[in-house]
Amino acid sequence: MLSSRSYFARNFIFNIKQKVPNLATDMKRRDVTCNFITNLLQIQIMKKLKFIILILFSLNSFSQKNCQYKIDEDKILENRNLDAFLNKFQNEKFTVFNDKNSIPKEVKKQLDCIAQKFDIANPKEEYQQGCVIEKKIPSRGLIFLAKSDDILVLTYGTGGIGSSTHFLFIKYNSKGIVDLWTGVGMGIIKHKSLEEITKFISGQRNRKWGLNTNMVWI
After folding, report:
1. How far apart are CA 65 and CA 47, in angstroms?
2. What is residue 210's predicted lDDT score, i.e. its pLDDT?
């Protein structure tokens, strides 16, 4: 007999409609992923594993709490605000910091609310990269951080069975987040400049599940 998680994945693989929550947490999501991969191995459906890994992250999810900034999931998944960010990258002056303490305080507070704790390690510091959850270290690892007067660019890695790189673009003011776009790529991608990030995003945006699936994952 398949567990409920295996049943969900089997139905998803064979295109049986299932409702998938949009916002996913991180530690619980990683635990579900690791347990679930074992079931996938047993039923020999590994061909679509790279897509299933991303979907699994949504199994343990939460509805948006009473946060000051409300994520517009459809706008993000349809990339409706992506071009505005990419244009800003070309037309504004950015400074690279690569230090998590450079995240504006009000933005960090709102990310903590949205993600139920947006914990992140600086480059070269330890973070959660495997299936075994170590609660004393952050669940994210900073790769790149740059900002202008009103735009914050973050890329960071997360672990589990499959490592991923997250792209988080935020328009902000003194009160916090004004607009937000996020996407994810498979594997750890160590971009070192806005030009490299822009090139990657532009190349992936029109591919099926190139930057997002059917959920917003922060």
Report:
1. 36
2. 80
- Among residues 54, 64, 71, 61, the alpha carbon closest in space to that of 12 is found at 54
Q: Which two tokens stand for residue 1?
A: 């007999």
Look-up: residue for tokens 């490299």? 196
Q: Is the pLDDT of residue 2 over 60?
A: no
Res. 88: pLDDT tops 60? yes
What are 104's two structure tokens?
A: 């504006």
| Residue 16: CB atoms within 10 Å | 10
State mean pLDDT over 154-171: 92
Average pLDDT over residues 7-32: 45
Pick the more confident residue, 20 or 180.
Answer: 180
What is the DSSP pairing of strand 141-147 with strand 95-96? antiparallel
Q: DSSP string of 92-121?
A: S--EE---GGGS-HHHHHHHHHHTTS---B
Contact indicator for 20, 178 with CB cutoff of 8 Å: no
* Residues whose CB is less than 8 angstroms from the CB of residue 148 and which lie 6 or more positions away in sequence, other chains included: 88, 92, 93, 94, 95
Predicted model pTM: 0.73
- Please state the φ and ψ torsions of residue 78, each to the nearest 5 degrees: -95, 5
The torsion angles phi and psi of 50, rounded to 5 degrees, stand at -60, -25
